[in-house]
Amino acid sequence: MYAQMVKTDAARVKSLDEMEPQERAFQERIDAGQKIEPKEWMPEAYRKTLIRQISQHAHSEIVGQLPEGNWITRAPTLERKAILLAKVQDEAGHGLYLYCAAETLGISRDEMYGQLHSGKAKYSSIFNYPTLTWADIGAIGWLVDGAAIMNQVPLQRCSYGPYARAMVRICKEESFHQRQGFDILTVLCKGTPEQKAMAQDALNRWWWPSLMMFGPSDDASVHSAQSMAWNIKQDSNDELRQKFVDQTVPQARFLGLTVPDPDLKWNEEKGGHDFGEPDWTEFFEVIAGNGPCNRERLEARRKAWDDGAWFRDALTVHAEKHAVRKTPAAAA
Ligand SMILES: [Fe+2]
Ligand SMILES: [Fe+2]
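^ thats the input. predicted complex w/ fe (ii) ion below
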């Protein structure tokens, strides 16, 4: 992997010969497929890149609960409600594993929340779109969790131990999420014409934002080349997007739904689909904070933080009292 990057990106990623002995030993361990663990030496840039990536991933899991949480009270049956509750709860768990993984790199949980609440840290642009109907919950599970799986499966093999291990469990849960979404849509598509139209409308609105989840084309990006050399990233954004389209189009056909892309067609030669370009202007607008729900999502997170202040305070006071009780002076 690293040798390839040096060939294609020699100007951007340092070669082994240019590295100091410590950094070189680090890179050789990565090239040999070894995991890097929290207390070990690592280049500062590696640490920073991982903090940014893992904390943004954690924020996405937590903010990602909001559009779906919105439907817990309106799920059509008790069974659907129980399933959706479990799914949303899983996302909270994903956020917590990931915050823990980021903490091992020397950033505190409070600092990460601070960055989210101030708007400094980003989260996945997809969660700034509204969930207008029950079919949206199906589309999110099928497409958004589906895209998340595409991104996350390779991360199980990434070089940073705590991140890779967190991903193993997360990926198992994500596949449950995807199936529950597909199941919602299967039922709607076999239902009344109105239900089928609701499913089609959800696909129309979620298709392009889902393709944007892989990020813009990154073949020429310095950042991407370095992340690949460090084995934090294994596939380019375009490769993952292609895989996602090829996996999802037959599923849409199975449901009897139409993917809203006039340029979509099978390309025999490449053994994959050709497809249209997402609207990157919209993507950058959403990232910049101007999506349909950015303000609402951040307000909900800030309010949750403020509403929980009394509980954090109570925990701190309890811990202090407990510590005093344990000292010999207090016992005497
Ligand atoms: Fe998740
Ligand atoms: Fe999920």
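Residues 1-11 have pLDDT under 50 and may be disordered.
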